[in-house]
Amino acid sequence: MGKFRDSVDTKALRFAVGFPVVLAAAFVFCAFLLRPDLPDPVAISWTADGGASFAPFGAYAGGGAVLIIALGWLVLFQAAPLSRPAVMRRIMMGTGLFLSMFITSVLAAGLVGQAGLADARESRVDLTVLALGSGAALSLGVMMGFVFKADRQWSLDDDRALELALARELDPELAGDTFRMWVHARSSVFVMIAVASLFPAALIAVALPWLGALVAGLAVVAAAFLCARVKADRRGLRVLVAGVLPVMDVPAAAISTASAADVRAADYGGWGYRNHGGTAAMLVSSGPAVVVHQTDGRNLAVSGGSPASAARLADVLTRVAARAHGGPSVERAPESESE
């Protein structure tokens, strides 16, 4: 899989696969909108003496969609391999776009030319649709050929990957000093929130929709506050409610000790985020947690998910705190899987 990604422009490949499919689906959809005004069967070719060849509407629409996809893929796929010259890839991308849209224009012109007629032999290709569609296809194909970036691009993800690789090369213990996990309340708690709020909100919405929406929104917010993303690394500890709202950010130098413990949420003010009396807590349930003592005398508690993950989080925080204070690194505990 790695060799394939190294040899193919994945962005160009996604476009090559998706564009003809979307274009064919749009053609079929528009064809069905014209279906009530079309004769049965429809003409698929015309002769100079007024004759015509016919096909069922389904065959015309389905065959046209297959033709759009097949020819589009045939040309657009030539722009995906990185081994080919950049100029060739640009030409293939522009030509593939033009060809797909040109075929769609021809098929659409054939249908529009038959709309409103009882006998398909009296129809002809609608030249206005054909001219407009062909012109748009040609101009967009030329533009695609110019704007398509056929050269290999270096992205921000590559920068981050390189930075992380260099850091791990210089410091093999960096990976061991990093720990991330999600913690959330038990499923029964979310079921209770749904029963206690969403069902009544549905009934209230019958009379007052805005009030029902408000009750439902409050239920969603309450459920979100029972989920958190916990991150521990050499910078310290960060806790984000629902994975987006930061509520705790403790630098490693501010951590004195960290230990795993079995706590009761009621002792810290209840579930969710609490901060009073010099103690902060983000507990999604009672049970395994990590209690952190800070150098300024303040304490905080964070749900640890399972006993193993709580012990792992406490071990990482203890080690990074010792490193930040300039002391010897603490012996690493056996690693365990996080949630």
Net shape: elongated
| Strand tally | 11
Q: Main beta sheet, described?
A: 5 strands, mixed
| Average pLDDT score | 81
Radius of gyration based on Cα positions:
32 Å
Q: Output the structural class.
A: alpha+beta
Q: State the low-pLDDT regions, or none.
A: 330-339
Biggest sheet, spatial arrangement of strands: 7-10-11-9-8
Determine the fraction of residues in helical runs and give it as a percent range: 40-55%
How many alpha or pi helices?
9
How far do the termini sit from each other? 27 Å
H and E order? HHEEHHHHEHHEEEEEEEEH
Using brief descriptors, characterize the structure shown.
four-stranded antiparallel beta sheet, alpha+beta, elongated, five-stranded mixed beta sheet, 339 residues, single chain
List the helices and strands and how they pair.
Blueprint: H1 2-7, H2 10-34, E1 42-46, E2 52-55, H3 57-76, H4 86-112, H5 127-147, H6 156-170, E3 179-184, H7 187-207, H8 209-224, E4 227-233, E5 236-241, E6 245-251, E7 255-263, E8 272-276, E9 279-283, E10 287-294, E11 299-303, H9 307-324
Parallel strand pairs: 9-11
Antiparallel strand pairs: 1-2, 3-4, 4-5, 5-6, 7-10, 8-9, 10-11
